[in-house]
Amino acid sequence: MTNGFSGVFAATLTPFGNDGTVDLDRVGTLTSGLIRAGITGVCPCGTTGEFPMLARDEKARINAAAAAQGGTVIAGTWGWLAEERAWLARKAEQDGAKAVFLTTPIFFRSTPEYILSWYRGVRTATTLPVFAYTIPQHTGNFIPLDVLERLADEGTINGYKDSSGDLDWLLKVIKKLKGRITIFAGHEAVFGPAREAGIDGYISGIAGVFPRAVLAVWRGEAGAVDRLQKIRQAMHEAGTIPALKYLSRKLGIDCGNPREPLLPPTGTAREALDKLIEESSGD
Asked: Rounded to whole angstroms, how far apart are CA atoms 23 and 143?
């Protein structure tokens, strides 16, 4: 059971204007363009959207601007405080999102008991499906399998996005929870084998700039996995978010520069991205 969510979703960038404020018009342009390109839906205010550097009201406005385009929006609701997370979930539902997702706590190590309460707090705030999201290489926290299963069994979460890049771990999750909750892969390095293992879909930052390249992997097209890995590797030196923002600007939608502490790409990293654009027509 996928709760109606399957296929390729884009983890979208947050566009900033020259003055550093969120550009809501470009949120709409970015979202509508991805829908036209065949993406199933979008996930604003996640890692690719620079969620730790966004204020509460900025997240709410971004989620609303994306939902106004009429596509399927899974809205990011991360916040330091429980009241902020609950408010964002309620606001996302009011503004037309189809589901919400919540990254684990960041920086400080959390106990399994706290992880449970973290997601239960959002569950009580909304009737929308709730997706848990782990990216432990950046947050320092992950959700143990027994905790994930408990959250699923009690109905606290309806889905799970894994961006660990650990294929063995993801295969364990699929084996344990496939059919009970929606399972998305969020790390492009495992997209090929995850599809073969029966994943419900992808949530991809690269899909926000090269949607057709990710859609081709989802469809099982010949050579698509190798092509996606080439894109991913070319972005590695610049860092994913700075690279995606640079590429988006070069391809026609200026999302501005990332917020500190991230910096725009320079030097050889920029040259590699320029070469990638030359080779990426049609993606």
From this structure: 34
